[in-house]
Amino acid sequence: MDVKKTIEEISKRAKEASRKVANLSTAVKDQCLLRTAEIIEEKKDWLREENEKDLAAAREKGLSSAFIDRLTLSDKVISSMVQGLREVAALPDPVGEVPKMWLRPNGLQVGRVRVPLGVICMIYESRPNVTIDAACLCLKAGNAVILRGGSDAIHSNLALAGIFHQALSESNIPEAAVQVVPTTDREAVNELLKREEEIDLVIPRGGEGLIRFVAETSRIPVLKHYKGVCHVYVDKYADVEMAKAICFNSKVQRPGVCNAMEGMLVHQEIAKDFLPAMARQFKEAGVELRGCKKTVSLLKDLAVAAGPEDWGQEFLDLILAVRIVDSMEEAFDYIARYGSNHTEAIVTKDYARARRFLKEVDASLVLVNASTRFNDGGQLGLGAEIGISTTKLHAYGPMGLEELTTTKFIAFGDGQVRE
Amino acid sequence: MDVKKTIEEISKRAKEASRKVANLSTAVKDQCLLRTAEIIEEKKDWLREENEKDLAAAREKGLSSAFIDRLTLSDKVISSMVQGLREVAALPDPVGEVPKMWLRPNGLQVGRVRVPLGVICMIYESRPNVTIDAACLCLKAGNAVILRGGSDAIHSNLALAGIFHQALSESNIPEAAVQVVPTTDREAVNELLKREEEIDLVIPRGGEGLIRFVAETSRIPVLKHYKGVCHVYVDKYADVEMAKAICFNSKVQRPGVCNAMEGMLVHQEIAKDFLPAMARQFKEAGVELRGCKKTVSLLKDLAVAAGPEDWGQEFLDLILAVRIVDSMEEAFDYIARYGSNHTEAIVTKDYARARRFLKEVDASLVLVNASTRFNDGGQLGLGAEIGISTTKLHAYGPMGLEELTTTKFIAFGDGQVRE
Question: Residue B235's domain is classified under what CATH number?
Fold first, then answer.
């Protein structure tokens, strides 16, 4: 297979299809998503057989059980894909929305209308369910999508694409609306990242290595999320019980995800009331605390001394960096230096300090008196999401359907010309 | 001078300043802009002396008179900078706007708030007035800005930055909010484009070569505008007189700019009524028509035969490509193939065809019955603009103050944790 040529053809077909997909009615798109869900259920056995080919190869290669777990299309993963399709079908269509129109002095009526981006390319790693999740969101937002999954999931991804193609074809939508790159050649990614004439947006999902590679190689705009180093700042005016509940939830409820707390900042005036009890609760849950000098001297054997690499570290594990700060300003400086613009929370009863924190802290979600774990499209009320952007262009925070669109200007005239 | 080190220091200073600039009140920012306008007027003679250094060097190098014209800080250019500063000071501040808040079932109140991007880097060519225009918009939107102008304008740019610094300092704003790169070494651009840790957005302004270079080299997101190949489609149901007025204005009012018409598409059923009279009007204005076969056979010596390179050409001159089309669908296909996603207009009296054109044509501005020349931030009612984006991420169309910001999520809780 000539990879360069294959990618060129895929990209051109996607661009051509994107004009049709952009103009589909909401009803047709939703019907296609619901039909995809049905076919997945109908063809579940076949899907598992195809998935088994990938799993067998992975076992033969001796890949880790965690890897094989992510690769498996279990009953649970399959129902969650089906449910996801039905949920997205039920979401409002962002395309065509006109948030505002205004009248110019010359009578020209001007507005912005929400339109699809065009062609989106997803580059992701081993989870094959991303194939359906991404295709579903892209199609609902009126885009064509090119999917490049992990090479170890190629049979699963092609099978899922086949199911989507059947639903597209039954709905009279061009099959090129959803394409899985049929080769596992790594060169395909390099070729995709050069197709700036056809592809409007690249979204990498996976480890930091993949994301950095895509961001540095691509000529096409990239929406990315490097890491989540989230903090809770326990203010001197915090309600101690609330602070304990929020910090515990932020760290322990699901420690391996990007919106879990990785650093806890505690105002010195509340440290004695808050930290020892909090530390005991963390200890019971198996959380290792790595503290600054003051923390260690207060907590004794409930904490170990943090090394310089612990500040700003994304542990994704039951480990927490703890720092006692002299002031809220010190917390601001710490977050600006070590945070990753993902999620930052304050616990306080003080109105003015809550306002300052919301204003001065730069993160995709800033919370007052709530867990960092709420940074998620579903939890914030956006519906399904395709990832969380920690860079500021186009999208900052969870990317839902709206973030897969843009707006163009429209103007209604009666013969206006410029003087 | 160690260029790498200089750029590193400038970038870090900008990032540090950006935290302060993001939190300035509207009153302080506006006062600084108005004071800059005053100082420009006070120091006009000195400014012209500094500009003369650049002009003398340019004359010595034998640069073209058009180039020297763009480099000159004439009385007219100086008053337009001053007026620009006053206009931007009078515009509403985008920072802090909360377009919408909503309540989640668990009582968490969630919203989006408009915030500055952080650090913006402008890379531009010979016009020194861009220094003030860009600094003014970036500051009003709460950003720090790094300005890299053309090497031939270095004295003028540093003088303008000096004036801005005086106003910043009098307003107690860090001078690093506005920095002009003090070296003309080309390596500085390469170094700037690597500072993705500090710079949030790069905006190149200038010729296509500069823009392509920046887009291909940068690791930082780039907002760009390659070219404006704009069309007017004269539908079979057009009002002939209106079509003539709109096409004439779109082509002739200012042919050297990106929103001028470069191609005119005429439905075959109106060609005889419209084209000959239109062609005579164009001829009187000195416009050369390059037509398809049908056009040439209809217009005879009022048009020459177009070559393949004329379709999709950005002439920026009194030259126009003319094509007779069999149907509106043919016009759609032509625009999709040869347009540049900048500005597209239809002239029609038919309601359904106007609706279809608005929906199906993909351009940053789509107009019905009005001149393409309206694609401009001021004309559309956005106030001043920093350029027109023809790519779809983040901004599509004129980029005003709002496009120099982003939104972050905020959430007000009462102790909510995730279950």
Answer: 3.40.309.10
Q: Which of A415, A394, A398, A410 is nearest to A200 (CA)?
A: A394
Q: How far is A103 from chain B (nearest CA, A)?
A: 9
Give the tens place of pLDDT for each residue, A268-325. Answer: 999 999 999 999 999 999 999 999 999 999 999 999 999 999 999 999 999 999 999 9
Q: Which of residues 150-209 of B touch A (CB under 8 A)?
A: 200-201
Contact in structure between A55 and A71 (CB atoms under 8 Å): yes
Q: CATH number for the domain including A53?
A: 3.40.605.10
CA distance A197 to A292: 51
DSSP B225-275: -----EEEEE-TT--HHHHHHHHHHHHHSSTTSTTSEEEEEEEHHHHHHHH
A 212-251 near B (Cβ less than 8 A): 215-216, 219, 221, 223, 239, 242, 245-246, 248-250
Distance between B244 CA and the closest CA of chain A, angstroms = 10
Residue of A nearest to B216 (CA): A219
In this complex, which of B108, B201, B359 lies closest to A393 when CB atoms are compared?
Answer: B201
**pTM as predicted:** 0.93
pLDDT in tens, B78-131: 999 999 999 999 999 999 999 889 999 999 999 999 999 999 999 998 789 999
What is the ipTM score, two decimals?
0.93
Same-domain check for residues A65 and A9: yes
- For chain A positions 20-79, those within 8 Å of chain B (CB to CB) are 22-23
Residue A144 belongs to what H/E stretch? strand A144-148
Out of B104, B374, B413, closest to residue A381 by CB: B104
